[in-house]
Design a protein that fits this description.
- Its main location: membrane.
- The protein has 526 residues and is mainly alpha-helical.
- The chain is globular.
- The protein starts with a helix and ends with a helix.
- The strands form four sheets. Strands 1-2 form a two-stranded antiparallel ribbon. Strands 3-4 form a two-stranded antiparallel ribbon. Strands 5-6 form a two-stranded antiparallel sheet.
- Helices cover 63% and strands 5% of the residues.
Length: 526
């Protein structure tokens, strides 16, 4: 067992799990802030219920995200110490800004928002939430700045000890790769939150129809019930409850559509930057073995093979050139042409250096795992398109104020919540694995810093053994599995409980000793 492979598996597993929380936190935080703003402006109860219900789910997701995110930074010193030494001078600034500025702003004002209900003025309370959300967006930017420097190192010069030294922090913070990646990630997060709202709201509207609370008239329009006849008003399932879910559903659909449109625009920018900065990643994403301008809709081949095993089945002439350069039909360099260039510039084998240990002298494969990049790229785009189409259909089906009674459509709506999560994860896996064999990709910019790069084989900690890493992989995976079970349990519990799960005062109890009917801020927080 190679410690490098195990270390990569560990980082991949923990990072993908952590990233399940990131887009939902970024997107849902913004939508909750909008809901809270609507309540402060209009005073309508449906917006208060929306703020507290979706805010409850936001808090659950936020705290799990914080807990799982801490492991990422510890891994830099545990499994990737050589990498930490190499990038330390550069990463110090953005990660310090993220931790000392953005994260503290985010967590401090979120605490004010949680415990400020009924204790501070509405305007200040709302401002606290906006500060927390903006802090989380700024925090995400600093993290992506660090990641984008690995994709496109700028603002540095090589020191005498062979490590990059930052000479221009502004160049690092305004890296064009970072700006493109950040806007793309934010738009993807909005798609996640939009489908989250849509799927859960669909479920509650379907339950209202299934339980007979809402009915449909001869014209097909909803007749909103108050739950009195069914004895359901004690669970907050009154007419205001209907307003909460139908508004949340349609708002979520609009957010998902706008978010997808944003990902298309920002993704196009990223594709053109990728062609300039990491042409091998672009070629692998298209299984473009030979130079040309045709876009592969479908190619088949041996997952463990090379270009000799790839056979294009469906191609669209000219599209690939447009994606890479903006010029229809332009030729894009293929893998067979790029690989000799990489070998000539960076060498055919790993250097004879103690950093590489037993891997020194091994042949370097500059082509990333093609089936991962090819299908990851298509899953990201395909699932995003499906989500946008589903959101449009949802707007049409709910135009008369409710959802169809079909349980199958309801199940599809709930299943649709997972689609943008999968699209986001596929995109990040493509981004990171497409950079291999580099952990810091070389910068082809002719500014004189093109030799700032690091092979992944040199980044792993030299003092760790395969057994130690295997133990940590198993331990972290088991711990994360337990955390996942608890998070899903909490989310499902409060989703099923509806607005009353975040507002106990909506649940009217006859038991005089039960104090859960109080409007207690601790009940909302915990």
């Amino acid at each position: 067992m190679d410690p490098l492979d195990i270390a990569r598996w560990q980082f991949g597993i923990t990072t993908v799990y952590h990233f399940l929380m990131v887009p939902l936190t970024l997107g849902l935080g913004m939508t909750v802030a909008i809901m809270h703003s609507m309540w402060v402006k209009t005073g309508q109860d449906r917006f208060l219920r929306a703020t507290k219900f979706w805010g409850k789910l936001y808090l659950i997701n936020f705290i799990v995200g914080v807990a799982t995110g801490l492991v990422q930074e510890f891994q830099f010193g545990m499994a990737w110490s050589e990498y930490s030494r190499f990038v330390g001078d550069v990463f110090g600034a953005p990660l310090a800004m993220e931790g000392l500025l953005a994260f503290f702003v985010e967590s401090t004002f979120l605490g004010v928002w949680i415990f400020g209900w009924g204790r501070i003025r509405k305007g200040l309370h709302l401002a606290a939430l906006w500060c927390a959300v903006i802090g989380s967006w700024i925090s995400a930017y600093f993290i992506i700045v660090a990641n984008s420097w690995m994709q496109h190192p700028v603002g540095v010069e090589m020191g005498d000890d062979g490590r990059p030294v930052m000479t221009d922090v502004w160049a690092v913070l305004t890296n064009n790769t970072a700006i493109a990646a950040y806007t793309h990630a934010i738009c993807g997060a909005l798609v996640v939150s939009g489908m989250f709202l849509l799927g859960i709201s669909w479920y509650h509207l379907w339950r209202r129809r299934h339980d007979g609370v809402d009915t449909v008239g001869a014209d097909g329009r909803v007749i909103v019930g108050d739950g009195t006849a069914q004895g359901l008003d004690k669970k907050g399932r009154d007419k205001t409850d209907h307003g909460l879910w139908i508004w949340s559903l349609r708002f979520g659909a609009i957010v998902a559509i706008l978010g997808f449109a944003g990902t298309v625009v920002t993704g196009d920018v990223q594709g053109k930057l990728m062609y300039e900065q990491q042409p091998m990643k672009m070629a692998a994403a298209e299984a473009a073995c030979h130079t040309g301008g045709s876009f592969s809709v479908l190619s088949i081949g041996d997952p463990g093979g090379d270009c000799d095993d790839v056979t294009p089945i469906i191609e669209i002439p000219g599209v690939l050139g447009f994606l890479g350069t903006g010029e229809w039909g332009a030729d894009m360099p293929g893998i067979t042409d790029l690989e000799p260039q990489y070998v000539e510039q960076y060498g055919a084998t790993l250097p004879d250096n103690p950093l590489y240990g037993e891997r020194a002298g091994q042949t370097i494969d500059y082509v990333p795992t093609m089936w991962v990049t090819y299908w990851g790229f298509r899953l990201m785009i395909g699932l995003g398109g499906i989500v946008a189409g589903a959101a449009v259909i949802a707007l049409w089906l709910t135009r008369k104020g409710t959802v169809p009674r079909s349980p199958w459509i309801m199940r599809l709506a709930i299943l649709g919540i997972t689609a943008p999560f999968a699209a986001n994860i596929a995109g990040w896996i493509f981004t990171e694995m497409g950079r291999q064999p580099f952990v810091v990709a070389p910068n082809p910019d002719p500014s004189g810093i093109d030799q700032v790069f690091m092979y992944t084989a040199a980044a792993v900690s030299p003092g760790v053994t395969a057994g130690e890493l295997l133990f940590s992989v198993i331990a972290l995976t088991l711990v994360y599995a337990v955390i996942l079970v608890f998070e899903l349990f909490l989310l499902v519990k409060y989703v099923r409980g509806g607005a009353a799960s975040a507002m106990p005062e909506l649940a009217q109890h006859d038991d005089a000793h039960d104090d859960t009917d109080r409007d207690d801020v601790l009940a909302f927080a915990y």
